[in-house]
Amino acid sequence: MLTRIDHIGIACFDLDKTVEFYRATYGFEVFHSEVNEEQGVREAMLKINDTSDGGASYLQLLEPTREDSTVAKWLAKNGEGVHHIAFGTADVDADAADIKGKGVRVLYEEPRRGSMGSRITFLHPKDCHGVLTELVTSAPVESPEH
Ligand code: CMX
Ligand code: CO
Fold first, then answer.
1. Average pLDDT over residues 16-43
2. What is the distance between the alpha carbons of residues 141 and 123, in angstroms, rounded to a whole number?
3. Separation of 70 CA from ligand 1 center, angstroms?
4. The VOC domain covers which part of the protein (predicted)?
5. Which among 33, 53, 51 has a CA at the least distance from the CA of 42?
6. 60 burial level (CB within 10 Å; 0-12, 13-18, 19+)
7. Is the shortest distance between the CB of 125 and ligand 1 below 6 Å?
8. How close is the Cα of 123 to the center of ligand 1, in Å?
């Protein structure tokens, strides 16, 4: 079951400048940043709010790391802007299978690694009224060491 907006993915040419815009304009701080070579992005997660399912909602700012990445291709065509939305679920495998059964193309056979150790997959935008849609299951929260 999809229980939150996990994040909105925003493609940008310059991650540092875009992070600074969100900090200076809205006061949002970077919660986490990483490079995901498989996805071809350098990214910053700005946490906006906690959600009632125990997760949180973020903005995901994305800068391409290579010319052949999906985000570089999208930026060349569209310029900066909203690239995708992501729904959070406790079970990305089950939700992806369920949605695939409804005739929507799921882009990955198996979920792949996303931000902060999450597991992610994508639904084809042409099957979702023009919206590239991601499904996310967050990594389990590690219990503190005793
Ligand atoms: N939102 C809406 N439509 C999109 C889109 C997007 N982000 N990206 C592509 N499209 C549309 C294009 O406009 C195009 O439509 P037209 O044929 O009408 O022009 C069509 O989809 C095909 O686009 P394309 O430019 O030829 O791109 P590809 O088919 O090579 O790739 C997609 C599209 C969705 C398969 C690819 O972007 C993908 O695999 N995305 C998932 C991975 C990803 O986006 N990773 C980065 C984020 C990582 C993260 O969130 O952690
Ligand atoms: Co994303």
1. 98
2. 26
3. 7
4. 4-138
5. 33
6. buried
7. yes
8. 10
pLDDT one-digit tens code per residue, 31-67: 999 999 999 999 999 999 999 999 999 999 999 999 9
Q: How far is the CA of 133 from the centre of ligand 1 (A)?
A: 10
Which structural domains are found in the chain, ordered by start? 2-137 (3.10.180.10)
Report the C-alpha gap between 90 and 95 in whole angstroms. 9
Q: Which of 7, 75, 84 to mutate to test the pocket of ligand 1 (most atoms within 8 A of CB)?
A: 84
Please work out whether the CB of residue 132 comes within 6 Å of at least one atom of ligand 1.
yes
Q: What pTM was estimated for this model as a whole?
A: 0.97
Residue 106: how many CB atoms within 10 A of its CB? 18
The protein residue whose alpha carbon is closest to atom 51 in ligand 1 is: 114
Q: Is 128 helix (H, G, I), strand (E, B) or coil?
A: coil
- Tens of pLDDT along 68-114? 999 999 999 999 999 999 999 999 999 999 999 999 999 999 999 99
CB proximity list for 129: less than 8 A, separation 6 or greater: none
pLDDT of residue 140: 87
